[in-house]
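Hey, quick one: can you model this chain's 3D structure?
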Amino acid sequence: MIEAYKKAGEAAKAAINRAFEIVRAGVSIKDVCNDLERKIIEFGCKPAFPCNICINDVAAHYTADENTRTIIPDNCIVKVDVGAHYDGYIADAAVTINLSSEYEDLIKSVREAIDNVSNNIEAGISVMKISTIIERTIKSYGFKPIKNLAGHQMDRYKLHTGFAVPNVKQMKDVFTKLYPGYAYAIEPFATLESGKGEVNGVRGGNIFKLVSPRPPKMGAARSLFLAIQRRFNYLPFTRRWLLDFRDNPSYPKAFYQLLDRGYITEYPYMVEGYGKPVAQWEHTFLILEKEVIRVT
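Sure thing. Here's the predicted structure for all 296 residues.
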């Protein structure tokens, strides 16, 4: 398990390093997504979810579809969130790349927040203590943490499981602790003081996930469900990864049948409530009895 997490972490780190090389104004979002996902595969892993490229007030859960023509604009900040898995063990990492003359301190606040967590995290630490560290660090810079986005516990082939790790202190989390044998993605999000400090979901982020434990009983929808299940298990995916089905005339109808009937769910992409820019930084921590490994 430990070696699998480390291998996934190396792939995620390689993708993040590549992002700093290629994310520029005028570059296609789809090209960035494809490039970073290929990098993960080059390291012997698979993407744990589609590469997220979120610009300015878009905080999370947006990836390019197969027909996306959007390019990265001038004078923006870009969140790059990647996940790699090796045999189902997931490493999740994110950074914010500044293509603007502003917002350097906003980005610094979330990076320092994750570093402060890294300096204090240990087996048995309470979720409330982690949230307090994140909230205090971000506020010390004069910014707002995003209160309805959170880190998350992970397990094999499960990107979100167990409990969340919020970016603001909640008294109910005082008895919720990080236990050995699990990985946790900690991801501070922050916005300007003039922002709402919350995000709203919008349809069209191009990220999907199987949610039904059983496929339809018959037909093309059943075949597509089983193909998606074999390929991605219950991890998030995008239609960009289903291009080999595109020539099958029954594919479009089958996909929308799965979506309309609740076999597949769509992740909404998250936008800051007042339209203010959002910064993010994320690492994955593997909690063991006597040590904590920051695999990303």
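One thing worth noting: The chain is about 30% helix and 30% strand.
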